[in-house]
C-alpha cells in the first residue's frame, strides 16, 4: 500500500508535468526558423513577434545568428503575430561615441527595409507547441534607421514566405 501512495503522490504528477512541458500544454510556445536578406543569412539581427488584435500576449523577441532564430517563451501564446525584423550591420567605420566623449564606436546601419520592421506586414499564425517560420527578405524598399526618422537609404523589399507571395 505504501508503494501505491508514493506512486500516486509523486510519480504520476512528475510524469504528467514532463508530458505537459514537452507537449506545450503550459500555454507557451516555441518558434524557430531561418531569416535571409537577398539569399544571405542575417547574422546579428533581431526578430520580434507582436501579438495582433486584442490578444493579451506580450511582444516576444529573439536574436538571429547565422541566419537562424529560436525562441521558447511562455509569452508566446497561440494566435496571429506581426513580425518585425531588424539588422544593424557594421559599416566598418568608426564614429564618435556620444555617450563617452573622446572615444569611438563601430558605426552600424539598418539594412532591413521598413516594410519588414517599423511598417511590417509580415504575419504568422503561432500554434501551441513548436512552430517553424522562415523569412526570405528582399532588398529595395526605404530604410529609416532607429532614431533617424526620415533618413532613408536603399535596402529591404518584398518577402517570399513559403505559401505567401506579395
Tally the structural domains. Answer: 1
Give start-end ranges of low-pLDDT stretches.
Answer: 11-25, 146-166
CATH architecture: Sandwich
Quaternary organisation of the protein chains = single chain
**Rg, Å, rounded:** 21 Å
The overall pLDDT average reads: 77
- Specify the CATH homologous superfamily: Immunoglobulins
From the 3D structure, determine the CATH topology: Immunoglobulin-like
**In which range does the helix fraction lie?**
10-25%
Broad CATH class: Mainly Beta
Number of strands: 13
What does this protein structure show overall?
By secondary structure, the chain is mostly beta strands. The chain has a single domain (2-155), classed as Immunoglobulin-like, CATH 2.60.40. It has one helix and 13 strands, in the order αβββββββββββββ. Strands 1, 2, 5, 10 and 11 form a five-stranded mixed beta sheet that branches. The protein has a four-stranded antiparallel beta sheet with strand order 4-3-6-9, with no helix packed on it. The protein is elongated, with a radius of gyration of 21 Å. Residues 11-25 and 146-166 have low confidence and may be disordered.
Ordered list of secondary-structure elements with their pairings:
Layout: H1 2-23, E1 29-37, E2 40-41, E3 45-51, E4 60-64, E5 68-73, E6 79-86, E7 88-96, E8 104-110, E9 123-126, E10 129-132, E11 135-137, E12 141-144, E13 152-155
Parallel strand pairs: 1-10, 1-11
Antiparallel strand pairs: 1-2, 1-5, 3-4, 3-6, 6-9, 7-8, 12-13
Brief account:
This protein is mainly β. It has one helix and 13 strands.
